[in-house]
Amino acid sequence: MAELRNFWGVGNQVRLPRTIRAYFGIGTESEIISEQDKLLELGYCLWHGLDLYEAVKSYLSNHSEHEESIKSGIANAIERLRGDESHQGMITYLLAIQGGTVDGKAIKPLSMKKLVELFSSELLLRYRPHYLVEYHCNYKELAEKYDGMELVNVLLSPMPATSVPISEQEIRDINPWKSLYEFINPIDDSFFDEDSNWLLKDDAYYIKEFNKESEDDFKFITNIRPEPFVGNPLTSKVVVLTLNPGYVYRVNNTLARVIPPQLTEVVKYQLNAQLSFRAKSFMCENTNTSWNVTYREAQNIIGDWYWYDIFENFRKEAGLSAEDSPEDVIYDNVSLIQYIGYASKSYKALPAGVILPSQRFTRLLIHYLALNKKDVLFVVSRSEREWRKLIGEEIWTLLEQENRLVHRKQFTNKNGASQTIRTQEFTKDAFANNGFERIKETLQSL
User: Fold this and answer.
1) Pair (410, 289) in one structural domain
2) pLDDT confidence of 189, banded at 50, 70, 90?
3) Around Cβ 132, how many Cβ atoms within 10 Å?
4) What crossing angle do the helices spanning 357-372 and 393-401 adopt, rounded to 10°?
5) Is 378 helix (H, G, I), strand (E, B) or coil?
6) pTM of the prediction?
7) Residue 334 φ/ψ, nearest 5 degrees
8) 419, β-bridge pairs
9) Cβ–Cβ contacts within 10 Å for residue 169, how many?
10) Maximum Cα–Cα distance for the chain, whole Å?
11) Contacts of 433-439 spanning 24+ positions with Cβ under 8 A
12) Among the three residues 138, 164, 190, which one is the final residue of a domain in this structure?
């Protein structure tokens, strides 16, 4: 595989380190790199936001004579990923590049765009940062289950996201946020440092470009600790899907500068532990300090008491055990996953089509929880449309069918359109379809 510095061009934008022909063509240029390394390099670039179709289109604009060989190479790469050289595998290949006739119906060959999209989906399904999960398509099983046009449609569609297993150890290993934790200087007692840089290297290009074009209120703040997770999603039973951390200058800057390190030492540990899935609770220990303020209170001062007030109001309305009970059913069993892990004063969406590398990890994390932690309830607290698109229709539908998604209430606005209620409160009136009771019952059952 090429050196990492060769993947980044002007402005630190991801690029392929070789020509398209090296990955999908024939001849000497294609032979100098192994098939495995081709997939790893392409996977790395796709994970980091490369538009592979645009790269193919750009190459062919100057080398149109290579179009058929490139198309054939992409179809071959799909079959290598699917790992089957059976008769059905060959049919997939031929239908993709040549078309054919099935049940008396003509099948058009896939366009270059559709073929690249199919390859990209198959590769991202198996790609983990710096390695590939080997997972083969069982053509025999598909041929027994489907027939005719139905089989064709299955063969020319990406494999289901539910088909490739993900383990907790994989999630821990490929978690990009732990890299920030690993480089923390334990001697540094400061909670806030104007010159700190808490930006993931993989996200850097997109966040910096976004900030260049955005007004101050919408810029992502990168000199405070990110909070992609609050609590521990790998151990909690209620996972709240929200948007991104808020930023209040008087709290996250002015106040953070003056809080004594004796109060912030445990808070820092909590925030750092969250980055590597080592947090034991949603909040710090509720124990006193020499300043007659608990560590939990110190954390809530820095957090402007935002989630504390929400959950304490929920505790009261739901009639759950007191905060200082031996086992707190709320803070020991609830976590947040942010759509974007970086804070901002106000939210503005990233440009259309942009998915941060850290968001690709978030999607994998939710897929893992959806497929392996069947007792976890997901609460879609903010931006349902964005979350649905990121998670993907297949996993979203699975969670709906298993009654594991709690939604905010909808209302009809003055234009007659359906709109989601804009609140983060956990009250009976804030959720649709007995969502409040389902959250309460999940926590009470622990």
Assistant:
1) yes
2) very low
3) 14
4) 30
5) strand
6) 0.89
7) -120, 145
8) 411
9) 8
10) 82
11) 433/406, 433/407, 435/379, 435/406, 435/407, 435/408, 436/317, 436/318, 438/377, 438/403, 438/406, 439/238, 439/314, 439/318, 439/377, 439/379, 439/406
12) 164
* 120's tokens: 């990209």
Question: Could you tell me the two tokens for 321?
Answer: 């055990």
Q: For 368-379, what is each residue's pLDDT tens digit?
A: 999 999 999 999
Which residue type is seen at 373?
K
Task: Judge whether 28 and 336 are in contact, CB under 8 Å.
Answer: no
Query: Residues for the chain: how many in total?
Result: 446
- Structural contact between residues 404 and 376, judged by C-beta atoms closer than 8 angstroms: yes
Domain boundary among 110, 142, 164: 164
Q: Which domain holds residue 35?
A: 4-164
**Extended beta strands in 189-236, E state:** 229-230
Residues 267 and 328 occupy one common structural domain: yes
φ, ψ of residue 74 to 5 degrees: the values are: -65, -45
Of the candidates 376, 368, 338, 310, which has an alpha carbon nearest to the alpha carbon of residue 169?
Answer: 368
Q: Using an 8 Å Cβ cutoff, are 369 and 396 in contact?
A: no
Residue 441 CA to residue 318 CA, distance in Å, equals: 9
Residue 113 is encoded by which pair of tokens? 């765009």
Question: 241 and 127, same structural domain?
Answer: no
Q: What total of structural domains would you count in the chain?
A: 2
Decide: residue 28, CB within 10 A, 0-12 exposed, 13-18 middle, 19+ buried.
exposed
Backbone φ, ψ for residue 335 (5° rounding): -145, 165
Question: Which candidate, 232, 156, 427, places its Cα nearest to that of 313?
Answer: 427
Number of neighbours of residue 227 by Cβ within 10 angstroms = 20
DSSP helix/strand/coil, 76: helix
Are 175 and 247 members of one domain? Answer: yes
- Find where tokens 């071959």 sit: 76
Q: Which two tokens stand for residue 73?
A: 């190479």
18 and 150 inside one domain: yes
Q: Report pLDDT digits (tens) over 133-188.
A: 888 887 777 777 877 778 778 778 888 888 888 999 999 999 999 988 765 554 45
Q: Are 123 and 46 in contact (CB under 8 A)?
A: yes
Question: Closest Cα partner for 14 from 209, 212, 174?
Answer: 209
343 and 320 fall within a common domain: yes
Same domain, 301 and 379: yes
Residues 414 and 392 reside in one and the same domain: yes
